[in-house]
Specification:
single chain, 150 residues, mainly alpha
Length: 150
């Protein structure tokens, strides 16, 4: 009887080249971002002398829709940034939890989405005109960053 170890074929090598590490962004994170952007939009409106809780002045669904859009943008940007670095960086910091990665990149993406929204006067003016049902663009309305805001 032949030795079983001599009859065993070598197992084929498993190709792991397309394996990747990913982060699942849960509904709780998205809801939190939506609330974050709603509060920031409400703050800008208040600084402009507009009561965001006055349904006669502001359409709540427009404010919420803009908060959702900004949250989606921040999540999308964070995912792109994470995808760009995760495969190589995971070897540098093994054991670093997904929450640490997400926190770092999502914070940056959230700040960037908000800055770009404020810097793009057309986005803010359009939001304000639609939210207030204004028949014409409101001239002189600019969203300004408060002290301490990124």
């Amino acid at each position: 009887m032949a030795n079983d170890s001599t009859n065993v074929e070598a197992a084929p090598k498993i190709d792991l080249s397309d394996a990747c590490f990913s982060i699942q962004i849960g509904d709780g994170v998205k809801r939190s971002l939506i609330r974050h952007f709603q509060q920031r939009l409400q703050g800008v409106l208040r600084r402009l002398g507009i009561n965001p809780d006055d349904g006669a002045l502001i359409k709540a669904d427009v404010l919420e829709r803009e908060a959702w859009r900004l949250a989606d943008r921040a999540i999308s940007d964070a995912r792109l940034q994470i995808d760009d670095v995760l495969d190589s960086a995971i070897h540098l910091w093994p054991g670093r939890p997904a929450q640490a990665w997400l926190g770092e990149y999502l914070t940056q993406a959230t700040s960037q989405a908000w800055r770009e929204f404020l810097d793009d006067g057309l986005s803010f003016d359009t939001f304000l005109a639609v939210a207030t049902d204004a028949p014409v663009a409101i001239e002189g309305c600019t969203a300004t960053k408060q002290e301490g805001e990124p």
